[in-house]
Amino acid sequence: MIRIVLFGDSITAGYTDGYPSSKFSDMLKEKIGREDVYCFNRGVPNSTITSALERLQADVLAIEPNYVVPFFGLADARQKQPLSATTYTAALTQLVRQITPEKCLLITPGVVADDSTVNAHLQEYVQATQQVATTTHCDLIPWHAHMATTPEKMLQPDGVHYSALAYDELTTMLAARFKQRLASFNMISSARQFMGSRQSQDNN
Predict the structure, then answer these.
(1) For the purposes of burial, counting CB atoms within 10 Å of the CB of 194, is it exposed (0-12), middle (13-18) or buried (19 or more)?
(2) What is the pTM of this model?
(3) Which of 14, 30, 51, 133 has the fewest C-beta atoms under 10 angstroms from its C-beta?
(4) What Å distances lie between residue 65 and 59, 155, 201, 203, CA to CA?
């Protein structure tokens, strides 16, 4: 089984009409289209990047994932005292290094409606996420730029959480990237099996 962990806040938790749902992980699994892929949803409403570090072992590493999708920023930007870009960068870097960069697929934070202060902080976190992706050589989905083109269609009436369209487009982007990764994963696995078989034959 290939284990993918979605790790984030209320967006990852599929928050819809005031309640969490499994739509994010369910849609991603469906679009990847493989029976051997299981998507674990570890989204917790109001989870910040710093609180995520505290639950990383229990919620992510204990699963022994093949891939992890850390997706934070919204709760950090909406706090009474939003996290600084410097602190966000340091925490995200620590998170990626503990998971290991080759397993991570980062997503740049999206936008909210009618709140310039929150959006300004989210833009800082976008730049921080891009910086972490570059310094750790980690894969990145440029979601912010995509979502910002039509934010009114991407948000629920609360102006914060994602609409069905947003989840559909985000999981489409993620699934395409995972299909590329899984194709490489299969090639490496096949090569290892072949080499193991050859070595066994040579030993006999």
Answers:
(1) exposed
(2) 0.89
(3) 30
(4) 10, 30, 32, 33
Query: Would you state the structure tokens that stand for residue 182, as one six-digit string?
Result: 């899984």
CB atoms within 10 A of CB 83: 23
Half-sphere exposure (Cβ direction) of 119: Cα atoms closer than 13 Å: 13
- What are the φ and ψ backbone dihedral angles of 173, each rounded to 5 degrees? -65, -45
* pLDDT tens for the chain, residues 1 to 204: 999 999 999 999 999 999 999 999 999 999 999 999 999 999 999 999 999 999 999 999 999 999 999 999 999 999 999 999 999 999 999 999 999 999 999 999 999 999 999 999 999 999 999 999 999 999 999 999 999 999 999 999 999 999 999 999 999 999 999 999 998 755 444 444 444 444 555 555
- Is the CB of residue 110 less than 8 Å from the CB of residue 78? no
Nearest to 40 by CA among 22, 56, 20, 53: 22
Bridging pattern class, strands 2-8 and 67-71: parallel
**What backbone torsions phi and psi does residue 149 show, to the nearest 5 degrees?**
-75, -35
| Segment holding 139, helix H or strand E | strand 139-141
Q: How far apart are alpha carbons 30 and 169 in whole angstroms? A: 13
Ramachandran region, residue 27 (left: φ > 0; alpha: ψ -120 to 50; beta: rest) = alpha
Tokens of 203: 């030993």
